Amino acid sequence: MNSGIRLKIVTPLLLSLLLAACVSTNDLQLSNGKGKSFIVSGRSYEQIWHAATVAMSTDMKIVDSHKPSGVIKSRVVNGTQGKVVGFFIQPTDEQAPNYTITIVSKKPLQTEFVDRDWEPSVWEDFKAAINPK
């Protein structure tokens, strides 16, 4: 097989692989049943939002942040390249008795059966920020 034909075959395959590997923060949705949820009580929405912002900017870059809907989405900058993480807070009322925090992550070429779909380090960073010593 000559190199011109090989190039015509290999190039589309490589482009397909690269496109399949891309992960967008749009892939992070609360409604897809993925991630891990935690209940937080005894804090205001403002305190939770601040701690979430700190956690989501540790080793990551916030790319989408919408306080009224309780959503922060970040891209990992130190670690797995292309990985994205979402932080969802419900409800968004200032003085709710309890808040549900859901953390969802997705990385390029992630498999449903092997890879986890949340980021434990974000939860640890959130706890450290909400309970400063």
Secondary-structure map with pairings?
Elements: H1 3-21, E1 36-41, H2 45-56, E2 60-66, E3 71-76, E4 84-90, E5 98-106, H3 120-130
Antiparallel strand pairs: 1-5, 2-3, 3-4, 4-5
Helix content: 25-40%
Helix-strand sequence: HEHEEEEH
Mean pLDDT: 80
What is the top-level CATH class?
Answer: Alpha Beta
Number of H- or I-type helical stretches? 3
Placed side by side, the strands forming the largest sheet appear as 1-5-4-3-2
Major sheet characteristics: 5 strands, antiparallel
Describe the structure.
By secondary structure, this protein is an alpha+beta fold. It has a single domain, classed as TATA-Binding Protein. The protein has three helices and five strands. A five-stranded antiparallel β-sheet has the order 1-5-4-3-2, with helices on one face. Strand 2 and strand 3 form a beta hairpin. Helix 2 crosses helix 3. The chain starts with a helix and ends with a helix.
List keywords for this structure.
133 residues, alpha+beta, TATA-Binding Protein, five-stranded antiparallel sheet, 32% helix
Question: What is the compact description of this entry?
Answer:
By secondary structure, this protein is α+β, with helices and mostly antiparallel strands. It has helices at 3-21, 45-56, 120-130; strands at 36-41, 60-66, 71-76, 84-90, 98-106.
